[in-house]
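Try this one yourself first.
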Protein backbone atom coordinates (compact mmCIF):
# COMPACT_ATOMS: atom_id res chain seq x y z
CA UNK A 1 0.00 0.00 0.00
CA UNK A 2 1.14 3.56 -0.67
CA UNK A 3 0.80 6.95 0.92
CA UNK A 4 0.45 9.99 -1.34
CA UNK A 5 -0.82 12.86 0.82
CA UNK A 6 1.46 15.86 1.27
CA UNK A 7 -0.32 17.01 4.45
CA UNK A 8 -2.23 15.47 7.34
CA UNK A 9 -4.94 18.03 8.04
CA UNK A 10 -7.69 15.74 9.34
CA UNK A 11 -9.31 12.34 9.03
CA UNK A 12 -12.56 13.42 7.40
CA UNK A 13 -12.69 11.66 4.05
CA UNK A 14 -9.73 9.39 4.78
CA UNK A 15 -9.91 5.89 3.35
CA UNK A 16 -9.47 2.45 4.91
CA UNK A 17 -6.19 1.76 3.09
CA UNK A 18 -4.73 5.09 4.17
CA UNK A 19 -5.52 4.47 7.83
CA UNK A 20 -4.10 0.96 7.64
CA UNK A 21 -0.93 2.27 5.98
CA UNK A 22 -0.36 4.66 8.88
CA UNK A 23 -1.11 2.01 11.51
CA UNK A 24 1.10 -0.62 9.85
CA UNK A 25 3.95 1.88 9.59
CA UNK A 26 3.41 2.79 13.24
CA UNK A 27 3.89 -0.87 14.20
CA UNK A 28 7.42 -0.74 12.78
CA UNK A 29 8.29 2.42 14.68
CA UNK A 30 6.71 1.06 17.86
CA UNK A 31 9.28 -1.74 17.76
CA UNK A 32 12.08 0.83 17.66
CA UNK A 33 10.82 2.45 20.87
CA UNK A 34 11.31 -0.85 22.69
CA UNK A 35 14.97 -1.11 21.65
CA UNK A 36 17.93 0.07 23.69
CA UNK A 37 18.88 2.40 20.80
CA UNK A 38 15.72 4.35 20.02
CA UNK A 39 17.11 6.75 17.42
CA UNK A 40 17.19 6.25 13.65
CA UNK A 41 18.56 8.54 10.89
CA UNK A 42 15.34 8.54 8.86
CA UNK A 43 14.78 12.33 8.88
CA UNK A 44 18.40 13.44 8.95
CA UNK A 45 18.61 16.73 7.04
CA UNK A 46 14.86 17.40 7.43
CA UNK A 47 13.79 20.50 9.38
CA UNK A 48 10.57 20.36 11.41
CA UNK A 49 9.02 23.34 13.21
CA UNK A 50 6.50 22.88 16.01
CA UNK A 51 4.16 25.85 15.59
CA UNK A 52 1.96 25.91 18.68
CA UNK A 53 -0.45 28.78 19.26
CA UNK A 54 -2.20 26.95 22.12
CA UNK A 55 -0.90 25.42 25.31
CA UNK A 56 0.00 21.74 25.02
CA UNK A 57 1.93 19.21 27.04
CA UNK A 58 1.46 15.66 25.72
CA UNK A 59 1.03 16.49 22.03
CA UNK A 60 3.94 18.89 21.83
CA UNK A 61 6.30 16.65 23.81
CA UNK A 62 5.23 13.63 21.79
CA UNK A 63 5.90 15.36 18.47
CA UNK A 64 9.24 16.73 19.64
CA UNK A 65 10.36 13.33 20.87
CA UNK A 66 9.21 11.69 17.62
CA UNK A 67 11.15 14.23 15.58
CA UNK A 68 14.31 13.74 17.62
CA UNK A 69 13.97 9.95 17.49
CA UNK A 70 14.03 10.34 13.69
CA UNK A 71 17.10 12.64 13.80
CA UNK A 72 15.30 15.68 12.38
CA UNK A 73 16.40 19.26 13.02
CA UNK A 74 13.73 20.67 15.36
CA UNK A 75 12.54 24.24 15.90
CA UNK A 76 10.00 25.08 18.59
CA UNK A 77 7.69 28.09 18.25
CA UNK A 78 5.66 29.48 21.12
CA UNK A 79 3.05 32.17 20.43
CA UNK A 80 3.52 33.68 23.89
CA UNK A 81 7.12 34.67 23.10
CA UNK A 82 6.84 35.29 19.35
CA UNK A 83 6.43 38.30 17.09
CA UNK A 84 2.69 37.70 17.13
CA UNK A 85 2.74 39.60 20.42
CA UNK A 86 4.12 42.53 18.43
CA UNK A 87 1.34 42.46 15.85
CA UNK A 88 2.68 40.04 13.26
CA UNK A 89 -0.05 38.19 11.35
CA UNK A 90 -0.29 34.44 10.90
CA UNK A 91 0.32 34.93 7.18
CA UNK A 92 3.56 36.82 7.85
CA UNK A 93 4.65 34.17 10.35
CA UNK A 94 4.01 31.55 7.68
CA UNK A 95 6.00 33.47 5.08
CA UNK A 96 8.95 33.74 7.46
CA UNK A 97 8.82 30.01 8.08
CA UNK A 98 8.75 29.46 4.33
CA UNK A 99 11.82 31.68 3.93
CA UNK A 100 13.68 29.47 6.42
CA UNK A 101 13.12 26.46 4.09
CA UNK A 102 11.32 24.37 6.69
CA UNK A 103 10.24 20.95 5.42
CA UNK A 104 7.43 20.02 7.84
CA UNK A 105 5.28 22.20 10.10
CA UNK A 106 3.38 20.74 13.05
CA UNK A 107 0.66 23.24 13.90
CA UNK A 108 -1.77 23.70 16.77
CA UNK A 109 -4.10 26.68 16.63
CA UNK A 110 -7.32 27.71 18.40
CA UNK A 111 -9.05 28.56 15.09
CA UNK A 112 -10.60 25.79 12.99
CA UNK A 113 -9.01 25.65 9.55
CA UNK A 114 -5.76 27.39 10.49
CA UNK A 115 -3.56 24.49 9.26
CA UNK A 116 -5.50 24.50 5.98
CA UNK A 117 -4.80 28.24 5.66
CA UNK A 118 -1.09 27.56 6.12
CA UNK A 119 -1.00 25.18 3.14
CA UNK A 120 -1.75 28.14 0.86
CA UNK A 121 1.29 30.07 2.04
CA UNK A 122 4.15 27.61 2.50
CA UNK A 123 5.54 24.74 0.46
CA UNK A 124 6.26 22.48 3.44
CA UNK A 125 4.05 19.64 4.62
CA UNK A 126 1.56 20.52 7.36
CA UNK A 127 0.48 18.27 10.23
CA UNK A 128 -2.60 19.38 12.13
CA UNK A 129 -1.89 19.00 15.86
CA UNK A 130 -5.35 20.33 16.74
CA UNK A 131 -7.31 23.25 15.28
CA UNK A 132 -9.83 24.54 17.79
CA UNK A 133 -12.79 22.17 18.17
CA UNK A 134 -12.40 20.91 14.58
CA UNK A 135 -9.96 17.96 14.35
CA UNK A 136 -6.97 16.34 16.06
CA UNK A 137 -5.94 13.59 13.62
CA UNK A 138 -2.78 12.33 15.31
CA UNK A 139 -4.63 11.78 18.60
CA UNK A 140 -7.29 9.79 16.77
CA UNK A 141 -4.64 7.73 14.98
CA UNK A 142 -2.90 6.83 18.23
CA UNK A 143 -6.32 5.92 19.64
CA UNK A 144 -6.94 3.65 16.64
CA UNK A 145 -3.49 2.09 16.93
CA UNK A 146 -4.03 1.36 20.62
CA UNK A 147 -7.44 -0.18 19.89
CA UNK A 148 -5.97 -2.33 17.13
CA UNK A 149 -3.23 -3.61 19.43
CA UNK A 150 -5.96 -5.13 21.62
CA UNK A 151 -8.69 -5.76 19.02
CA UNK A 152 -7.10 -6.89 15.77
CA UNK A 153 -10.07 -6.01 13.56
CA UNK A 154 -12.31 -3.06 14.43
CA UNK A 155 -14.98 -3.94 11.87
CA UNK A 156 -18.27 -4.35 13.70
CA UNK A 157 -16.75 -3.50 17.08
CA UNK A 158 -18.78 -1.20 19.31
CA UNK A 159 -16.92 1.95 20.34
CA UNK A 160 -18.58 4.45 22.68
CA UNK A 161 -17.26 7.98 23.02
CA UNK A 162 -18.46 9.63 26.24
CA UNK A 163 -18.46 13.29 27.14
CA UNK A 164 -18.20 16.73 25.57
CA UNK A 165 -18.61 15.90 21.89
CA UNK A 166 -19.50 19.49 20.99
CA UNK A 167 -16.13 20.98 21.93
CA UNK A 168 -13.97 17.92 21.19
CA UNK A 169 -11.64 17.85 18.19
CA UNK A 170 -10.61 14.35 19.28
CA UNK A 171 -14.17 13.07 18.99
CA UNK A 172 -14.52 14.31 15.43
CA UNK A 173 -11.27 12.75 14.27
CA UNK A 174 -12.03 9.53 16.16
CA UNK A 175 -15.41 9.28 14.45
CA UNK A 176 -13.94 9.63 10.96
CA UNK A 177 -11.13 7.15 11.69
CA UNK A 178 -13.38 4.58 13.33
CA UNK A 179 -15.91 4.80 10.52
CA UNK A 180 -13.13 4.27 7.97
CA UNK A 181 -12.17 1.05 9.77
CA UNK A 182 -15.77 -0.18 9.98
CA UNK A 183 -16.49 0.27 13.69
CA UNK A 184 -19.94 1.04 15.10
CA UNK A 185 -19.72 4.35 16.96
CA UNK A 186 -22.00 5.55 19.77
CA UNK A 187 -21.77 9.03 21.26
CA UNK A 188 -22.97 9.54 24.82
CA UNK A 189 -23.35 12.70 26.86
CA UNK A 190 -25.75 15.48 27.82
CA UNK A 191 -27.83 16.93 25.03
CA UNK A 192 -26.02 20.27 25.50
CA UNK A 193 -22.77 18.52 24.57
CA UNK A 194 -24.04 17.15 21.25
CA UNK A 195 -23.49 19.06 17.99
CA UNK A 196 -26.53 19.88 15.90
CA UNK A 197 -27.54 17.12 13.48
CA UNK A 198 -24.84 14.86 14.91
CA UNK A 199 -26.64 11.73 13.64
CA UNK A 200 -25.65 12.73 10.11
CA UNK A 201 -22.13 11.58 10.97
CA UNK A 202 -23.39 8.00 10.85
CA UNK A 203 -23.27 7.44 14.61
CA UNK A 204 -25.72 6.43 17.32
CA UNK A 205 -26.49 9.05 19.96
CA UNK A 206 -27.43 8.14 23.53
CA UNK A 207 -28.03 10.14 26.68
CA UNK A 208 -28.05 7.06 28.94
CA UNK A 209 -24.57 6.03 30.07
CA UNK A 210 -25.54 2.45 30.90
CA UNK A 211 -27.24 1.79 27.57
CA UNK A 212 -24.28 3.31 25.72
CA UNK A 213 -21.57 1.32 27.49
CA UNK A 214 -23.00 -2.02 28.67
CA UNK A 215 -22.28 -3.74 25.32
CA UNK A 216 -19.35 -1.59 24.23
CA UNK A 217 -16.02 -3.19 23.33
CA UNK A 218 -14.18 0.12 23.83
CA UNK A 219 -15.13 3.20 25.85
CA UNK A 220 -13.23 6.40 25.07
CA UNK A 221 -13.83 9.05 27.73
CA UNK A 222 -13.39 12.71 26.85
CA UNK A 223 -12.19 15.47 29.14
CA UNK A 224 -14.65 18.13 30.24
CA UNK A 225 -13.08 21.15 28.53
CA UNK A 226 -13.86 23.92 30.95
CA UNK A 227 -11.59 26.35 29.08
CA UNK A 228 -13.73 26.09 25.91
CA UNK A 229 -17.07 26.64 27.61
CA UNK A 230 -18.67 30.01 28.17
CA UNK A 231 -21.21 28.62 30.63
CA UNK A 232 -24.64 27.04 30.61
CA UNK A 233 -23.65 23.62 29.30
CA UNK A 234 -23.72 21.85 32.69
CA UNK A 235 -25.56 22.52 35.94
CA UNK A 236 -22.43 21.35 37.78
CA UNK A 237 -19.44 19.04 37.45
CA UNK A 238 -20.85 16.97 40.30
CA UNK A 239 -24.07 16.36 38.38
CA UNK A 240 -22.13 15.45 35.22
CA UNK A 241 -20.05 12.96 37.18
CA UNK A 242 -23.17 11.40 38.71
CA UNK A 243 -24.88 10.99 35.34
CA UNK A 244 -22.02 10.31 32.93
CA UNK A 245 -18.82 9.69 34.90
CA UNK A 246 -17.18 6.28 34.51
CA UNK A 247 -16.66 4.77 37.96
CA UNK A 248 -16.11 1.28 39.35
CA UNK A 249 -19.83 0.53 39.61
CA UNK A 250 -20.42 1.40 35.96
CA UNK A 251 -17.32 -0.50 34.89
CA UNK A 252 -18.68 -3.67 36.51
CA UNK A 253 -21.75 -3.43 34.26
CA UNK A 254 -19.62 -3.42 31.11
CA UNK A 255 -18.01 -6.32 29.28
CA UNK A 256 -15.19 -7.89 31.32
CA UNK A 257 -12.68 -7.22 28.53
CA UNK A 258 -13.77 -3.66 27.72
CA UNK A 259 -10.98 -1.18 26.97
CA UNK A 260 -11.04 2.14 28.82
CA UNK A 261 -9.38 5.05 27.01
CA UNK A 262 -8.90 8.76 27.60
CA UNK A 263 -6.97 11.28 25.44
CA UNK A 264 -5.90 13.31 28.50
CA UNK A 265 -5.46 15.35 30.49
CA UNK A 266 -7.72 13.60 32.98
CA UNK A 267 -10.13 15.36 35.33
CA UNK A 268 -10.03 12.68 38.00
CA UNK A 269 -13.32 12.29 39.81
CA UNK A 270 -15.24 14.13 37.08
CA UNK A 271 -15.39 12.15 33.82
CA UNK A 272 -13.45 9.17 35.19
CA UNK A 273 -12.80 7.81 38.67
CA UNK A 274 -9.16 7.34 39.75
CA UNK A 275 -9.54 3.59 40.27
CA UNK A 276 -10.87 3.21 36.71
CA UNK A 277 -8.16 5.41 35.19
CA UNK A 278 -5.48 3.35 36.95
CA UNK A 279 -7.28 0.00 36.68
CA UNK A 280 -6.43 -3.10 34.65
CA UNK A 281 -8.91 -2.23 31.87
CA UNK A 282 -7.30 1.17 31.29
CA UNK A 283 -4.90 1.63 28.35
CA UNK A 284 -4.42 5.37 28.90
CA UNK A 285 -0.64 5.21 29.38
CA UNK A 286 -0.35 2.92 26.35
CA UNK A 287 -1.98 5.69 24.35
CA UNK A 288 0.77 8.09 25.41
CA UNK A 289 3.54 5.68 24.40
CA UNK A 290 1.86 4.84 21.11
CA UNK A 291 1.49 8.54 20.37
CA UNK A 292 5.24 8.87 19.80
CA UNK A 293 5.27 5.94 17.35
CA UNK A 294 2.22 7.25 15.45
CA UNK A 295 3.82 10.67 15.04
CA UNK A 296 7.09 9.08 13.91
CA UNK A 297 5.13 7.18 11.27
CA UNK A 298 3.33 10.28 10.00
CA UNK A 299 6.54 12.32 9.84
CA UNK A 300 8.17 9.49 7.93
CA UNK A 301 5.32 9.11 5.43
CA UNK A 302 5.11 12.84 4.71
CA UNK A 303 8.87 13.12 4.31
CA UNK A 304 8.84 10.30 1.77
CA UNK A 305 6.15 12.06 -0.25
CA UNK A 306 8.20 15.26 -0.19
CA UNK A 307 11.17 13.31 -1.48
CA UNK A 308 8.94 11.88 -4.25
CA UNK A 309 9.58 8.36 -3.06
CA UNK A 310 7.00 5.63 -3.10
CA UNK A 311 6.12 4.43 0.37
CA UNK A 312 5.60 0.70 0.32
CA UNK A 313 6.34 -1.75 3.15
CA UNK A 314 9.33 0.24 4.50
CA UNK A 315 12.04 -1.82 6.18
CA UNK A 316 12.49 0.79 8.90
CA UNK A 317 14.22 -1.49 11.39
CA UNK A 318 16.98 -2.20 8.87
CA UNK A 319 18.17 1.35 9.48
CA UNK A 320 19.27 0.42 12.98
CA UNK A 321 20.65 -2.96 12.07
CA UNK A 322 17.68 -4.99 13.30
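Now uncover the answer:
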Amino acid sequence: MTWTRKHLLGLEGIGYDEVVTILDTTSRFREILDRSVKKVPTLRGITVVNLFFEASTRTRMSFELAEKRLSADVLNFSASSSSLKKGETLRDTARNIEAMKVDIVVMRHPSPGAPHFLTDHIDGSIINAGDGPHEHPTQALLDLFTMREHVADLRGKRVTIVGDILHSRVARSDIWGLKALGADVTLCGPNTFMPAEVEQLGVTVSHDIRDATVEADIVNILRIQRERQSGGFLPSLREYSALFGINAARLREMKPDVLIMHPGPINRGVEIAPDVADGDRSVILEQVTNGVAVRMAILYLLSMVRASKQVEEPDILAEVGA
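Discussion: The domain at 137-285 is CATH 3.40.50.1370 (Rossmann fold). The chain has a mean pLDDT of 90.
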